[in-house]
Amino acid sequence: MNPSLDPTTIDVFVSGHTHLPSFSEVEREDGKPCVLVNSGCFLRQLQPVTPHLKGPPVFVSKFVLTHVRVFVEGEGLRVELWEQPKLAHQNLTRLERLLSWGQRPPQPPPDSKPRIMASATL
Question: Mean pLDDT over residues 39-54, rounded?
């Protein structure tokens, strides 16, 4: 970041590529609101699932497809964190399917539309 930048003048701070989307509304020292948002990423992740019967760890696929939109809306600034749900096909062995039965996270329908996960207007 530019060392000459005064952080108290920032209304929106966008970061990304940490694989974990986040959205926080905070109040600056002067009382004005600001938004800290992490865009996450566009990738397929392997997430651990707690197996039945004390079996070995099972990892299932999940897509994390998120992005941030920042735009002027009327007199204010609008910040939105979006998610694009996407079906992640699982390539599990029979044993992995058995051990993770009922433990796997639900998959979105194939025709899922993008949706706003969080938003704020400043």
Answer: 81
